[in-house]
Amino acid sequence: MKISNKTIAYNYEPFIIAEIGINHNGSVEIAKKLIDGAVSAGCDAVKFQKRTVETVYTPEDLARPRENPFGPTNGDLKRGLEFGKKEYDEIDRYCKDKGILWFASAWDEASVDFLEQYNPPVYKIASACNTDRGLLEYIKSKGRPVILSTGMSSDEMIDKMVKILGEKDLIILHCTSTYPAANAELHLKNIPRLIKKYPLAFVGYSGHEVGAYPPLVAAALGACVIERHITLDRAGWGSDQAASLEISGLHRLTTELAALSSYMGEDKKYILDSERPIEAKLRRKNTI
Predict the structure, then answer these.
(1) 65 vs 82: CA distance, rounded Å
(2) Domain architecture of the chain: domains with CATH
Protein backbone atom coordinates (compact mmCIF):
# COMPACT_ATOMS: atom_id res chain seq x y z
CA MET A 1 0.00 0.00 0.00
CA LYS A 2 1.17 3.53 -0.75
CA ILE A 3 0.45 6.87 0.90
CA SER A 4 1.68 9.29 -1.73
CA ASN A 5 5.13 7.85 -2.51
CA LYS A 6 5.54 6.24 0.93
CA THR A 7 5.27 2.46 1.30
CA ILE A 8 3.06 0.94 4.00
CA ALA A 9 4.00 -2.68 4.61
CA TYR A 10 4.73 -5.19 7.33
CA ASN A 11 8.38 -6.09 7.97
CA TYR A 12 9.25 -2.66 6.66
CA GLU A 13 10.32 0.54 8.39
CA PRO A 14 7.17 2.00 10.03
CA PHE A 15 5.39 4.98 8.52
CA ILE A 16 5.65 7.65 11.25
CA ILE A 17 2.99 10.33 11.74
CA ALA A 18 3.66 13.31 14.00
CA GLU A 19 0.22 14.32 15.30
CA ILE A 20 0.12 18.09 15.73
CA GLY A 21 -3.65 18.14 16.17
CA ILE A 22 -4.52 21.27 18.16
CA ASN A 23 -1.15 21.57 19.91
CA HIS A 24 -0.45 24.60 17.73
CA ASN A 25 -2.79 26.54 20.07
CA GLY A 26 -4.15 28.51 17.15
CA SER A 27 -0.72 29.72 15.99
CA VAL A 28 0.65 28.97 12.52
CA GLU A 29 4.12 29.86 13.78
CA ILE A 30 3.88 27.16 16.48
CA ALA A 31 2.57 24.77 13.83
CA LYS A 32 5.64 25.50 11.70
CA LYS A 33 7.97 24.80 14.63
CA LEU A 34 6.24 21.47 15.18
CA ILE A 35 6.53 20.67 11.46
CA ASP A 36 10.24 21.49 11.66
CA GLY A 37 10.57 19.15 14.64
CA ALA A 38 8.82 16.35 12.76
CA VAL A 39 11.08 16.86 9.74
CA SER A 40 14.23 16.89 11.86
CA ALA A 41 13.15 13.62 13.52
CA GLY A 42 12.60 11.93 10.16
CA CYS A 43 8.81 11.58 10.34
CA ASP A 44 6.89 10.76 7.18
CA ALA A 45 3.89 13.02 7.79
CA VAL A 46 2.31 15.54 10.12
CA LYS A 47 -1.37 15.51 10.96
CA PHE A 48 -3.86 18.19 11.96
CA GLN A 49 -7.58 18.10 12.64
CA LYS A 50 -10.38 19.98 10.85
CA ARG A 51 -13.79 20.68 12.28
CA THR A 52 -16.77 22.80 11.31
CA VAL A 53 -17.32 24.09 14.81
CA GLU A 54 -21.02 24.87 14.45
CA THR A 55 -21.65 21.38 13.05
CA VAL A 56 -19.59 19.34 15.49
CA TYR A 57 -20.81 21.15 18.64
CA THR A 58 -24.28 22.14 19.76
CA PRO A 59 -25.13 25.78 20.49
CA GLU A 60 -25.45 24.85 24.16
CA ASP A 61 -21.99 23.31 24.22
CA LEU A 62 -20.46 26.32 22.48
CA ALA A 63 -22.11 28.69 24.95
CA ARG A 64 -20.85 26.79 27.99
CA PRO A 65 -18.59 28.91 30.21
CA ARG A 66 -14.94 27.93 29.85
CA GLU A 67 -12.17 30.39 30.53
CA ASN A 68 -9.44 30.14 27.90
CA PRO A 69 -6.94 32.34 26.04
CA PHE A 70 -9.53 33.16 23.36
CA GLY A 71 -12.45 34.16 25.56
CA PRO A 72 -14.88 33.06 28.30
CA THR A 73 -16.79 30.28 26.49
CA ASN A 74 -16.17 26.86 25.05
CA GLY A 75 -17.09 28.27 21.64
CA ASP A 76 -14.34 30.87 21.90
CA LEU A 77 -11.87 28.05 22.55
CA LYS A 78 -13.03 25.84 19.69
CA ARG A 79 -13.06 28.69 17.19
CA GLY A 80 -9.68 29.96 18.40
CA LEU A 81 -8.07 26.57 17.83
CA GLU A 82 -9.58 26.06 14.38
CA PHE A 83 -7.47 26.85 11.34
CA GLY A 84 -9.17 28.14 8.19
CA LYS A 85 -8.15 28.46 4.56
CA LYS A 86 -5.50 31.13 5.15
CA GLU A 87 -3.75 29.00 7.75
CA TYR A 88 -4.01 25.73 5.81
CA ASP A 89 -2.78 27.41 2.63
CA GLU A 90 0.35 28.35 4.57
CA ILE A 91 0.67 24.89 6.14
CA ASP A 92 0.32 23.30 2.70
CA ARG A 93 3.00 25.59 1.27
CA TYR A 94 5.31 25.07 4.23
CA CYS A 95 5.04 21.28 4.25
CA LYS A 96 5.72 21.12 0.52
CA ASP A 97 8.75 23.34 1.03
CA LYS A 98 9.99 21.06 3.84
CA GLY A 99 9.28 17.86 1.91
CA ILE A 100 6.86 16.29 4.40
CA LEU A 101 3.33 15.01 3.83
CA TRP A 102 0.43 16.53 5.75
CA PHE A 103 -3.18 15.55 6.22
CA ALA A 104 -5.93 15.94 8.79
CA SER A 105 -8.71 14.13 10.56
CA ALA A 106 -12.01 15.49 9.27
CA TRP A 107 -14.74 15.58 11.92
CA ASP A 108 -17.64 16.31 9.53
CA GLU A 109 -18.53 16.20 5.87
CA ALA A 110 -17.94 19.92 5.28
CA SER A 111 -14.41 19.50 6.63
CA VAL A 112 -13.86 16.68 4.12
CA ASP A 113 -14.93 19.04 1.35
CA PHE A 114 -12.58 21.71 2.72
CA LEU A 115 -9.60 19.33 2.81
CA GLU A 116 -10.25 18.01 -0.71
CA GLN A 117 -8.86 21.25 -2.18
CA TYR A 118 -5.41 20.21 -0.87
CA ASN A 119 -5.48 16.76 -2.51
CA PRO A 120 -4.71 14.98 0.78
CA PRO A 121 -2.72 11.73 0.53
CA VAL A 122 -5.00 10.05 3.08
CA TYR A 123 -7.93 10.78 5.37
CA LYS A 124 -7.83 10.13 9.09
CA ILE A 125 -10.95 9.18 11.03
CA ALA A 126 -10.57 10.27 14.65
CA SER A 127 -11.72 8.01 17.46
CA ALA A 128 -14.36 10.60 18.34
CA CYS A 129 -15.88 10.20 14.87
CA ASN A 130 -15.47 6.48 14.19
CA THR A 131 -19.14 5.61 14.84
CA ASP A 132 -20.48 8.29 12.46
CA ARG A 133 -21.70 6.12 9.58
CA GLY A 134 -22.46 9.07 7.33
CA LEU A 135 -18.98 10.52 7.78
CA LEU A 136 -17.29 7.15 7.23
CA GLU A 137 -19.28 6.60 4.03
CA TYR A 138 -18.53 10.13 2.81
CA ILE A 139 -14.80 9.77 3.41
CA LYS A 140 -14.85 6.36 1.72
CA SER A 141 -16.53 7.93 -1.33
CA LYS A 142 -13.49 10.13 -1.96
CA GLY A 143 -11.43 7.10 -3.01
CA ARG A 144 -8.41 7.92 -0.89
CA PRO A 145 -6.61 5.68 1.63
CA VAL A 146 -8.16 5.86 5.10
CA ILE A 147 -6.58 5.70 8.55
CA LEU A 148 -9.05 4.64 11.24
CA SER A 149 -8.38 5.22 14.94
CA THR A 150 -10.14 2.75 17.22
CA GLY A 151 -10.17 4.52 20.59
CA MET A 152 -13.37 4.15 22.62
CA SER A 153 -14.32 1.09 20.54
CA SER A 154 -15.10 -2.59 21.09
CA ASP A 155 -14.36 -5.46 18.72
CA GLU A 156 -17.97 -5.45 17.59
CA MET A 157 -17.84 -1.74 16.82
CA ILE A 158 -14.59 -2.07 14.87
CA ASP A 159 -16.15 -4.85 12.80
CA LYS A 160 -18.93 -2.46 11.79
CA MET A 161 -16.46 0.31 10.92
CA VAL A 162 -14.38 -2.01 8.75
CA LYS A 163 -17.49 -3.31 7.01
CA ILE A 164 -18.37 0.27 6.01
CA LEU A 165 -14.85 1.24 4.94
CA GLY A 166 -13.65 -2.07 3.49
CA GLU A 167 -10.20 -3.47 4.20
CA LYS A 168 -8.64 -2.28 0.93
CA ASP A 169 -6.50 0.84 1.42
CA LEU A 170 -7.41 0.87 5.12
CA ILE A 171 -5.05 1.34 8.05
CA ILE A 172 -6.49 0.43 11.44
CA LEU A 173 -4.79 2.10 14.39
CA HIS A 174 -5.04 0.43 17.78
CA CYS A 175 -5.67 3.31 20.18
CA THR A 176 -6.65 4.12 23.76
CA SER A 177 -8.45 7.45 24.14
CA THR A 178 -7.23 8.66 27.51
CA TYR A 179 -4.98 11.72 27.70
CA PRO A 180 -2.45 10.68 28.85
CA ALA A 181 -3.00 6.93 28.81
CA ALA A 182 -1.65 4.83 31.68
CA ASN A 183 0.65 1.96 30.76
CA ALA A 184 -1.93 -0.59 31.89
CA GLU A 185 -4.48 0.92 29.48
CA LEU A 186 -2.42 0.42 26.31
CA HIS A 187 -3.22 -3.29 25.65
CA LEU A 188 -0.67 -3.61 22.87
CA LYS A 189 -1.40 -7.33 22.54
CA ASN A 190 -4.32 -6.26 20.34
CA ILE A 191 -1.94 -5.35 17.52
CA PRO A 192 -0.97 -8.88 16.36
CA ARG A 193 -4.57 -9.97 16.92
CA LEU A 194 -5.90 -7.21 14.66
CA ILE A 195 -3.27 -8.03 12.03
CA LYS A 196 -4.56 -11.60 11.93
CA LYS A 197 -8.23 -10.56 12.04
CA TYR A 198 -8.04 -8.07 9.15
CA PRO A 199 -5.51 -9.57 6.73
CA LEU A 200 -6.35 -7.24 3.82
CA ALA A 201 -5.95 -4.06 5.88
CA PHE A 202 -2.86 -2.76 7.66
CA VAL A 203 -2.59 -2.28 11.40
CA GLY A 204 -0.74 0.44 13.29
CA TYR A 205 -0.72 2.23 16.61
CA SER A 206 -1.78 5.69 17.79
CA GLY A 207 -0.38 6.48 21.24
CA HIS A 208 -1.37 8.98 23.92
CA GLU A 209 0.89 7.72 26.70
CA VAL A 210 3.56 9.70 28.52
CA GLY A 211 6.58 7.59 27.54
CA ALA A 212 8.43 7.44 24.24
CA TYR A 213 8.80 3.66 23.96
CA PRO A 214 5.37 1.98 23.79
CA PRO A 215 5.27 2.76 20.04
CA LEU A 216 8.56 0.86 19.69
CA VAL A 217 6.93 -2.14 21.36
CA ALA A 218 3.91 -1.68 19.06
CA ALA A 219 6.19 -1.75 16.01
CA ALA A 220 7.95 -4.86 17.32
CA LEU A 221 4.52 -6.48 17.58
CA GLY A 222 3.88 -5.69 13.91
CA ALA A 223 2.43 -2.16 13.74
CA CYS A 224 3.46 -0.71 10.39
CA VAL A 225 2.16 2.81 11.08
CA ILE A 226 3.02 4.78 14.23
CA GLU A 227 1.18 7.97 15.15
CA ARG A 228 2.28 10.05 18.14
CA HIS A 229 1.16 13.49 19.36
CA ILE A 230 3.97 16.05 19.51
CA THR A 231 4.37 19.33 21.36
CA LEU A 232 6.91 22.05 22.06
CA ASP A 233 6.20 21.82 25.79
CA ARG A 234 4.40 18.99 27.60
CA ALA A 235 3.69 21.34 30.50
CA GLY A 236 2.24 24.03 28.24
CA TRP A 237 -1.36 25.16 27.96
CA GLY A 238 -3.69 22.81 26.09
CA SER A 239 -5.68 19.62 26.61
CA ASP A 240 -3.38 17.35 24.55
CA GLN A 241 0.04 18.63 25.58
CA ALA A 242 0.61 16.19 28.47
CA ALA A 243 -0.20 13.23 26.19
CA SER A 244 2.40 14.32 23.64
CA LEU A 245 6.12 13.92 23.04
CA GLU A 246 8.41 16.90 23.00
CA ILE A 247 10.70 17.06 19.98
CA SER A 248 13.61 15.51 21.91
CA GLY A 249 11.39 12.55 22.81
CA LEU A 250 10.25 12.27 19.20
CA HIS A 251 13.90 12.05 18.13
CA ARG A 252 14.50 9.23 20.63
CA LEU A 253 11.48 7.36 19.30
CA THR A 254 12.32 7.72 15.60
CA THR A 255 15.94 6.72 16.24
CA GLU A 256 14.82 3.52 17.95
CA LEU A 257 12.19 2.78 15.29
CA ALA A 258 14.86 3.12 12.60
CA ALA A 259 16.99 0.56 14.45
CA LEU A 260 14.13 -1.87 15.04
CA SER A 261 14.75 -4.11 12.04
CA SER A 262 18.34 -4.49 13.19
CA TYR A 263 17.16 -5.40 16.70
CA MET A 264 14.73 -7.98 15.34
CA GLY A 265 17.28 -9.68 13.08
CA GLU A 266 16.67 -13.25 11.89
CA ASP A 267 14.28 -15.85 13.25
CA LYS A 268 16.89 -18.60 13.55
CA LYS A 269 19.64 -19.20 16.11
CA TYR A 270 23.23 -19.92 15.12
CA ILE A 271 26.69 -19.03 16.36
CA LEU A 272 27.63 -15.59 15.10
CA ASP A 273 31.09 -14.98 13.67
CA SER A 274 31.52 -12.33 16.38
CA GLU A 275 30.85 -15.00 19.00
CA ARG A 276 33.55 -17.41 17.78
CA PRO A 277 36.47 -15.75 19.63
CA ILE A 278 34.35 -15.59 22.80
CA GLU A 279 33.39 -19.23 22.35
CA ALA A 280 37.04 -20.25 22.06
CA LYS A 281 37.87 -18.30 25.18
CA LEU A 282 34.91 -19.15 27.46
CA ARG A 283 33.40 -22.47 26.38
CA ARG A 284 34.22 -25.09 29.05
CA LYS A 285 33.02 -28.28 27.39
CA ASN A 286 31.25 -29.31 24.23
CA THR A 287 29.86 -32.76 24.94
CA ILE A 288 26.46 -32.50 23.20
Answers:
(1) 18
(2) 2-282 (3.20.20.70)
